[in-house]
Design brief:
The structure holds two protein chains of two kinds. By secondary structure, chain A is α+β, with helices and mostly antiparallel strands. Chain A has ten helices and seven strands. Chain A has two domains: about 5-105, Beta-grasp domain (Ubiquitin-like (UB roll), Roll), CATH 3.10.20; about 105-240, Alpha-helical ferredoxin (Fumarate Reductase Iron-sulfur Protein, Chain B, domain 2), CATH 1.10.1060. Chain A has a five-stranded mixed β-sheet. Chain A has a two-stranded antiparallel sheet with strand order 6-7. In chain A, α7 packs antiparallel against α8. By secondary structure, chain B is an all-alpha fold. Chain B is elongated, with a radius of gyration of 17 Å. Chain B has a single domain, classed as 3 helical TM bundles of succinate and fumarate reductases (Up-down Bundle). Chain B is built from four helices and no strands. The chains are: A alpha+beta, B mainly alpha.
């Protein structure tokens, strides 16, 4: 962690939705992450800088920001990988209301999570035997590909459809719904399919695949949404759900 | 987009794919054989097959295209969803009218 003489030119978003970028210089270190830079600014230049983080190891999904125009998890993004000509621009995530500086309001994100019925609905009680789920079953394999989302909001910030259509539920929310649709233990999948076939549901996705491109844990919400499109269309044609 | 419109758009896309392929093949055939407008009209005149082919093509394209236009208007213009739907329906009706008029011109006249 020996300091070098090199300085990084940092442009940070300050204020709310109608804020502006402010510049400062931060000493560069080996293996320095974007989150390290933001933390350095808060501790050495301006303690009023607001941002959000918790685990610092890519588990909690708290620290996502827009780095040089790209949504990223900042705790796992090395400055050396993103700085251009010794400069970096750090802004709050797009498609979210800005609370202050680099902290965004996640409320719309999790409200849509609820609208997409992203909550497990148990079909058994604690007195029943544990449901056997074969790891080789088609449903489990499909769910496996979509779990491990850390709710960082990177896909939501990268999504063009979210930007253009305020009703759109969002890639993370629909990806979560897909994992539950493939959970044989869940009791409310018809209601879930009904919820995500409404205005702003899975049919609104344009398959631009920005979610897949930028997901820091390598998930593919576009594929999950494609699965939901097939599943809801089948349910509609069978008369299980209505338009 | 509602699931009903989504299914209509996918069904018409599935229908249009082979129709477009045949349409392009016909264009290549006509160009390579050097067919004149009179040659083409002599073959299409009174043909139930070509009337059905291009009639289906026009209806599928009008439905498919107008649903797409509705989505573009709803997402990129200040129009509300309902206004975008009305504008797209008018656009679709125009496609049907112009398309069927063209089909009639090569089959009936």
């Amino acid at each position: 962690m020996a300091s070098t003489e090199a300085l990084l030119n940092v442009s940070l978003w300050r204020g709310g939705q109608d804020g502006r970028f402010e510049s400062c210089q931060v000493p560069m270190f080996e293996s320095q992450t974007v989150l390290d830079v933001v933390t350095w600014v808060q501790r050495h230049i301006d303690p009023t800088l607001s941002y959000r983080f918790a685990c610092r190891v890519g588990m909690c999904g708290s620290c996502a920001m827009t780095v040089n125009g790209v949504p990223r998890w900042t705790c796992r993004t090395h400055i050396s990988a993103v700085a251009k000509n010794g400069s970096v621009e750090i802004a709050p995530l797009e498609n979210f209301p800005v609370i202050k500086d680099l902290a965004v309001d996640m409320k719309p994100f999790f409200e849509k999570w609820q609208t997409a019925k992203g909550v497990f609905a148990p079909s058994k009680t604690r007195r029943d035997k544990i449901a056997p789920v074969s790891p080789n079953s088609e449903a489990r394999i499909a769910a496996d590909r979509a779990i491990e989302c850390i709710n960082c909001g990177v896909c939501y910030a990268a999504c063009d459809t979210v930007r253009w259509n305020p009703d759109y539920l969002g890639p993370a929310q629909l990806n979560r719904a897909w994992t539950l649709v493939n959970d044989v233990r869940d009791a409310k999948n018809t209601e879930r399919l009904q919820a995500i076939a409404q205005k702003g549901g899975c049919q609104s996705c344009h398959s631009h695949q920005s979610c897949q491109e930028y997901c820091p844990v390598g998930l593919n919400p576009t594929a999950s949404i494609a699965g939901l499109k097939r599943r809801t269309a089948r349910a509609f044609l069978k008369g299980d759900i209505s338009a | 987009m509602s699931i009903r419109l989504y299914i209509w758009q996918r069904l018409t896309a599935a229908l249009l794919a082979p129709l477009i392929f045949v349409h392009i093949a016909v264009i290549f055939y006509a160009m390579r054989r050097g067919l004149t407008a009179a040659d083409i009209l002599s073959r299409t005149h009174g043909s139930v097959v070509w009337a059905a082919f291009y009639g289906t093509f026009v209806l599928a394209a009008a439905i498919h295209g107008s649903i797409g236009v509705r989505n573009v208007l709803a997402e990129w213009s200040p129009l509300s969803g309902r206004a975008a739907g009305i504008a797209a329906a008018i656009f679709g009706a125009m496609l049907v009218a112009l398309g069927l008029r063209a089909v009639a011109a090569v089959v009936l006249l």
